[in-house]
Amino acid sequence: NVALYRPADGHFTRVDLGVGDDPQRRADLMRLAPDGSVWLSIINHGLQHRAADGRLLADYPAGVAPGLPEKLVEQLRVDASGRLWVAGGAGVLRFEDGRFVPVPGIAAGMVYDIAFAADGSLWVGREGLLESYQPQGGGFVLKRSLGAAEGVPAVSMGGLVLGCSGQLWATTPRGLVWWQPQGERLQVL
């Protein structure tokens, strides 16, 4: 279940996700779309798209939904056009025309998070690696890779956030990683 609260009138309701009462099947990620709908990742189930009032718009079970493999989902992101992106064990997928497709040019393998830059570029967080991709055609091309040689710890990169001056922040089990493009400085804080 997820809770839905409407501040305007104080209305509170629980939304049944329809995946049973097994605690191993719970919503662990949510992302708001520009139209007010919500994308949910449900552990050991897959993804759901729900209207702002909680109604189920679509259910995408992992391994059953077109293009959505039975791989761990680490993060959901929605781009400026309102399209869903999924980062996880299947790499980076985009939701296009009712199916999940790998993003051309981004290497397969575990991806923990992605961050969109204003110029259309994309950062990808992997195990001990931060990658910057530039858009090219309908896909992307690798522009920069930051790893052990630059001081990136050999651990999973959690949440990625881009700062207003182009700096990149990443959460890790070893602390915050901060990369500043001016001077190409990287620090673990």
Question: Briefly, what is this?
Answer:
The protein is an all-beta fold. Helices cover 0% and strands 51% of the residues.
Description:
It is a single chain. Helix content is 0%, strand content 51%. It is an all-beta fold and 189 residues long. The chain has a four-stranded antiparallel beta sheet, with no helix packed on it. A four-stranded antiparallel beta sheet has the order 7-8-9-10, with no helix packed on it. It has a four-stranded antiparallel beta sheet with strand order 11-12-13-14, with no helix packed on it. It is globular.
Task: Draw up the topology in text.
Blueprint: E1 2-6, E2 11-15, E3 27-32, E4 38-42, E5 46-50, E6 56-61, E7 73-78, E8 84-88, E9 91-96, E10 99-102, E11 113-116, E12 122-126, E13 129-136, E14 139-146, E15 160-162, E16 168-172, E17 175-180, E18 185-188
Antiparallel strand pairs: 1-2, 3-4, 4-5, 5-6, 7-8, 8-9, 9-10, 11-12, 12-13, 13-14, 15-16, 16-17, 17-18
Features:
189 residues, 4-stranded antiparallel beta sheet, 51% strand
Summing up helix and strand content along with how strands pair, one would put the structural category as: mainly beta
Number of E-state strands: 18
Tally the helices: 0
| Low-pLDDT ranges | none
Radius of gyration: 18 Å
Shape: globular
**N-to-C SSE string, H for helix and E for strand:** EEEEEEEEEEEEEEEEEE
